[in-house]
Amino acid sequence: MRILFITSNRLGDAVLSTGLLAHLSERYPDAALTIACGPLPAPLFRSVPGLERLIPMPKRAWARHWVDLWRACVGTRWDLVVDLRNSAVGRLVLAKRRFFHARAPHLHKVEEIGRVLGLSPPPSPRLWIDAVAEAEADRLLPGGAEPFLAIGPTANWTGKEWPADRFAALAARLTGPGGRLSGRRVAVLAAGPERGRARPVLDALGERAIDLTGRTDPMAAAACVRRAALYVGNDSGLMHIAAAAGTPTVGLFGPGFPETYGPWGMAARTVISRVPRSELLARQKADPQANGLMDGISVEAVEQAADELLGPAAPGPVMPQPREVVTNPCKSPEAGP
User: Which portions of the sequence form the region Disordered (predicted)?
Assistant: First the structure.
């Protein structure tokens, strides 16, 4: 059996689609999977069980990347095509069965993706972290350090970034004397182009910081974040990686849409700005370079969410106690194509 799975070129959306892919892999354990996605999230799929071919799709002028994909797939008769891009390729290749993504703005993206195969509840995102990524995490994390605090202070748009001084203040509270993660190191993660915007946080943390900015591909980042006691970050692909890895995750939202893109998992929470989103979006529309769109989130509110995820304080080592997601509880799928 041959399955073609076409997913997003965006990191976060690709992560959120992994639950549907895991469902297919488990339902058809002997199938040969071909996965097409953007180059950035591609490493996350390299160890999917049953993978026969991984096709990264760098964008090309005049949509020629879709022509390239069609050429790579047209010679195969597919038993099943799952096209989350709702593309012409999914319609133009030979296939016995085809399923396409359809927008459902009132649902979380994981629920929307689950509806492609009629899965309710939808399958939760899943990561397949391989030995190469684990070895890279061993190299990057000093001395096999005990579970640490991980933070993601950047995003693909600066309007979604909580102020750097607040990230530093939060880290000081959580890892300082009397904090829930007292004495722990702080790993700072950011994509390569965003390293400069993470620098103020690294400078404020000093020797406590583990600099992982621009140093890892998504798979290695997942291996690192999975070892953290807690992840706190902006609305980004890295936030979704942390939640999918099972790390207690706090996602921060100002002008974004947590009802659609909040972190999904049994140990995730969102903290939303006190400023109404309509006001933030109006400010952004008036000035695309507007600053301060995340100022409505206080350090105290994020610390409270972190405390709730970490569970009741107790003497001795801190052991994260996952809690169910407030808005999007996840369960394993029971049925589907």
Answer: 311-337
Per-residue pLDDT at 321: 35
**Which DSSP symbol is given to 217?**
-
The beta strand positions in the chain, using DSSP E, are 2-6, 32-37, 51-56, 78-83, 95-100, 149-152, 186-188, 209-211, 230-234, 249-253, 268-272
By the 8 A CB rule, do 90 and 100 touch? yes
For the stretch 3-50, pLDDT in tens is: 999 999 999 999 999 999 999 999 999 999 999 999 999 999 999 999
146 and 277 within one domain: yes
CATH, residue 95: 3.40.50.2000
| CB neighbour list of residue 277: distance below 8 Å, 6 or more residues apart | 254, 255, 257
Is residue 333 in a domain? Answer: no
Cα distance between residue 253 and residue 269, in whole Å: 11
In Å, how far are 153, 236, 322 from 213, measured between CA atoms? 10, 14, 27
> Phi/psi zone of residue 225: left (φ > 0), alpha (ψ -120 to 50 degrees), beta?
alpha
Same domain for 161 and 276, yes or no, is yes
Tokens of 29: 């354990």
Q: Is residue 68 part of a domain?
A: yes
Q: Quote the number of domains for the chain.
A: 2
Domain that holds residue 57: 2-117
Compute the distance between CA of residue 73 and CA of residue 96 in angstroms, rounded to an integer. 14
Asked which of 40-49, 137-146, 194-203 is least confident by mean pLDDT, the reply is 137-146
